Amino acid sequence: FFQAEDGIRDISVWLEFRRVLFRSTMKAGILKIYMSPREESTKATSSDERIKNVEAENSVIIDTKKDIYSGDRLTYDKQQNKIYLNGNVTVRQKDSTIKSEALIYDKTTEKAVLTGKVFYTTKDTSVSGDKMDYDRKNNKAIIIGNVIYTKNDAVVRGNKMTYDFATAEGFVENTDNSTRVKAIFTPGSMK
């Protein structure tokens, strides 16, 4: 187990860890890297092959050059190849932001699950719901529970939405058939 507080600089373990997690840069107030001892991993030639788990807390920021992820706490489980980000989660992409309370990202499938009142915003569109299943590879998401989709001044409510980030188009529905989808359109808003 390796622990460093208030940043890590110029340490080989840190440089090799960067390759394991997103191939990007990570900052945190506290970083803990759990590694297998050298004698347990005879095949491991580098420190990143010996990493079992990583924990980070206190303003965790991950910059992948494409996206910037932030949250209060991070756990990386190398065996499951999953990243858990909790508390005030924010994902900033080129022209959009996603906020939630928790994110689980599966690096193998490139799919993420965001929970705890999810908000997605761009300059003219916003979507909120209780949960978002995000397929990064296909750039699509399914938002479930108390969905509110707003584009300009138009508002659509339902309990499920399928959203395509590439086209900025979505389909809202009520899957429980108890009520109809509710929509408000302001004249001139659908340009």
Description:
- The chain is mostly beta strands and 191 residues long.
- Helices cover 7% and strands 58% of the residues.
- The protein has helices at 12-20, 47-50; strands at 2-5, 25-27, 30-35, 51-63, 68-77, 82-92, 97-106, 111-121, 125-135, 140-151, 154-164, 169-173, 182-184.
- Strands 1, 2, 3, 4, 5, 6, 7, 8, 9, 10, 11, 12 and 13 form a 13-stranded antiparallel β-sheet that branches.
- A hairpin with a 4-residue loop joins strand 5 (68-77) and strand 6.
- The protein is elongated.
- The N and C termini lie far apart (57 Å).
- The model is unreliable at 1-20 (pLDDT under 50).
Topology readout:
Layout lengths: L1 E4 L6 H9 L4 E3 L2 E6 L11 H4 E13 L4 E10 L4 E11 L4 E10 L4 E11 L3 E11 L4 E12 L2 E11 L4 E5 L8 E3 L7
Antiparallel strand pairs: 1-3, 2-4, 3-4, 4-5, 5-6, 6-7, 7-8, 8-9, 9-10, 10-11, 11-12, 11-13
Short description:
The chain has 191 residues and is mainly beta. It is 7% helix and 58% strand.
What keyword list fits this structure?
single chain; 191 residues; 2 helices
Classify the helix fraction into a percent range: under 10%
Number of helices: 2
Order of helices and strands: EHEEHEEEEEEEEEE
Radius of gyration: 20 Å
Distance between the termini: 57 Å
